[in-house]
Recover the amino acids of this structure.
């Protein structure tokens, strides 16, 4: 696709349920990032994938959060046993590392997660 | 935290006025980027300034970088109502491509 695609755009779930959020990056982009943005707040880094390297998971807030990237393309962020404090917009971005691109990130529209 | 710190947190101006937003960061950087976010949308890259550059222009945008003070500023000249958005700075600390976004400046341009 032409841009970063995220699905679903909105997700309402009950406390304790698991959710999966999907990100389809720009074709050819080797780097993929997940961020969380709470209402009126800045972006909180969650996890970063770069090519075949081990992901940088340093931003994941708890072991309930995990992410994988299959085939170097699509990524899924999974939140297990959701809590109300997980309610936020989850943003995905991709970038083409190196050269003149210099890590410019292209963002999807986000998934708005509401945990009731 | 290594995130950039934007100042002010909120700014309200009249159409036609200039808007200046500031960003301070912690340690040496590879480059610094500015992004814009319209309400309910993802972020859009605006401009990148390298560590060896002091000023850069793009249309009505002017970015400066002072590495001795570890600060950057974004100036939007002749603002328009359509410039209303949140603006974020993102220092690139050369951590393998990861950017650390600040809390943002919420700009409101009144017609």
């Amino acid at each position: 696709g032409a841009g970063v695609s995220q699905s679903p755009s909105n997700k309402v779930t009950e406390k304790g349920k698991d959710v999966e959020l999907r990100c389809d990056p720009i074709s050819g982009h080797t780097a993929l990032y997940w961020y969380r943005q709470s209402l009126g707040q800045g972006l909180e880094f969650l996890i970063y994938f770069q090519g075949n390297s081990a992901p940088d998971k340093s931003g994941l807030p708890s072991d309930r959060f995990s992410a994988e990237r299959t085939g170097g393309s699509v990524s899924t962020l999974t939140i297990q046993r959701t809590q109300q404090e997980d309610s936020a917009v989850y943003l995905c971005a991709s970038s083409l590392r190196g050269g003149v691109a210099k890590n410019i990130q292209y963002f999807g529209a986000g998934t708005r997660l509401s945990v009731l | 935290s290594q995130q950039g710190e934007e100042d002010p947190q909120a700014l309200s101006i009249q159409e036609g006025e200039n808007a200046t937003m500031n960003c301070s960061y912690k340690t040496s950087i590879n480059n610094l980027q500015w992004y814009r976010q319209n309400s309910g949308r993802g972020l859009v890259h605006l401009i990148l300034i390298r560590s060896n550059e002091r000023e850069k222009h793009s249309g009505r945008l002017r970015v400066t970088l002072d590495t001795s003070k570890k600060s950057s500023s974004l100036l939007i000249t002749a603002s328009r109502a359509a410039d209303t958005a949140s603006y974020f700075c993102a220092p690139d600390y050369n951590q393998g491509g990861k950017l650390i976004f600040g809390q943002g400046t919420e700009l409101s341009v009144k017609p």
